[in-house]
Write the structure tokens for this entry.
Amino acid sequence: MTGAPPPTLAASPPPTLPAYSDPPTDAVLDSGLLHELAHAFGGPFHFLLPQRFDANLAAFRAALADAGVNGQIYYAKKANKAAVWIERCAAGGAGADVASSGELREALGHGVRGEDIVVTGPAKHEELLRVAVLQGALIAVDSLDELDRLLALARTSTVRPARLLLRRLPPAQPHSRFGMTAPELEAALARCVRAGDAVRMEGFCFHLCGYAVQPRADLAGQLVDLCLKARAAGLRADRIGIGGGFAVDYAAAGDWHAFLAAQHPGHYHARKTFSAADFYPYHSPVAGAGALRAVLVAVPAGGRDRLGDRLRETGTLLLLEPGRALLDRAGASVFRVRGVKDRDGYAILTVDGTSLSVSEQWFNSEYLPDPVLVTPAGRAPGRGVHPACVGGASCLETDLLTWRKIPFPARPAPGDLLVYPNTAGYQMDSNESPFHELPLPPKVVVEPHEGRPRWRLDRHPAR
């Protein structure tokens, strides 16, 4: 490829991508608490804002209520391991979506009732199936093999029938490893009918990649038809599960599109290359509970009625499993600057943690919302451009929390804090490990109390 060389950093300042301003987060940044906690822990930490989780849960419930649809919301526990979210589910009557024996124990141990738990994931372990049946959890069955194992277990249970959903392979995503084809579902229904009272077949579900509204509504409409067919065969089939996939809107549209248009390899350490397809869509015009509202008013392909109307008319319950969307603006990650090294017109910062604590970096991507520079005197003021990438404390060349040369408003200095905003959803702990014998960053629950933030450690045991 020929042509003019890319513009230099001086001629083309690195683009910025500020996250939306968030008053509860700003109150913590401005309180002076973060430097006290950094001193106490001697390393990176995450802070969590449970009131945000409660507000997001209420918004999803309002979307269901406004559409006149009966539904149940299950928090997708894999999005963040903290116990506080499960505590909020138990207190607020929400459920939990789990995929392992450990997650099931955590949900039960922090107060979520067995009947308010849905067990997902492929090829579930026998122990997971056994405890799920004993506790009355709803089990999403992914294959005929798994169904046969569950039926065998259910026939020996004297406590209660096994509650299950049958997972549909999305026809538009035939290469997905999740779900059953149409012929396999036919066989599964026949086996459920033959099992009689040993099982309670409650409906269908799917796992669908992507955030588009219409495909989710289309497949949900197909599941409603499957429920009607199953009811005709004598099965309960009164609910459908549409999973998660509700996008989070991190940044304003103008900032996001300007960033994508401006960014090029010269804006990254070592000229690291990313394309727009590598990034999460950090701006989404339809997000969170708004995305659910859009799904409910969409008309499924081949139908005439809105999905919400169809659910209501057929008496079908809607099950949701949001994770990231319930954690929107519900926490941030804090790293202390250890050192600053100048390099060719920008700085390389080294912080006291690793990129294992910002998970996007481990998927050949980048967590793009700008970290906030907080000095001992408060948030750094100014309109300067002090570009710096952010490296971790390990001996790995690729251990960068941020490859991008972030245009900080002031020159970072050792002892300053970098606060990565809105990291509660999938960023904090998906890949964390005690590499180099570094302890896992603690999670701190922060709540307002008498005009100031009050904190406690999360009750999830460190591993």
Remarks:
- The longest strand covers residues 331-343.
- The radius of gyration is 24 Å.
- Residues 50-249+284-327 form a domain with the TIM Barrel fold (CATH 3.20.20.10).
